[in-house]
Amino acid sequence: MEVTYLPQEASSAGILISTRLHAPGKARRSSFCSNPISGGRLLCHNGTPDQSLQQPVMSRRCNKAHVCAACNSSAQHPKPQESIPGSYGAPFIGALRDRLDFFWFQGEDEFFRKRKERYGSTIFRVNFVPGMPGIALLDQKSYLVLYDPTKVDKHDTFVGALLPKTDFTGGYRVLAYLDPLHPKHAILKSFIMELIKSNSSRILPEFATAFSETFNQMETALSEGREANFSSSVKMLVLDFLLRAIVHRDPRAVGAAALGDDGPSLLESWIAVQFAAIAQAGLPPILEEIFLHSFPLPFSLIRANYQRIYSFFDTYAIEALDVAKERFDLERDEATHNLIFAIGVNAWLGLIKLLPSIIFYVGKNNSHLHDKLRGEIRAAVASNGGRLSPKAIESMPLVRSTVLEVLRLASPAKYQYARARKDLIIESHDASFVVKKGELLCGCLSMASRDPVIFENPDSFIPERFEGGDGEKLLPHLLWSNGPEHLHTTSQNKQCAGKDLVILIASLLLAHIFIRYDTFELVDQPSSAARKPPQICFKTLQIRATDPTSDLNWAQRISSISSSDQT
Ligand code: HEM
Ligand SMILES: CC/C=C\C[C@@H](/C=C/C=C\CCCCCCCC(=O)O)OO
Question: What is the C-alpha to C-alpha distance for residues 196 and 191, in angstroms, rounded to an integer?
Answer without folding.
Answer: 9
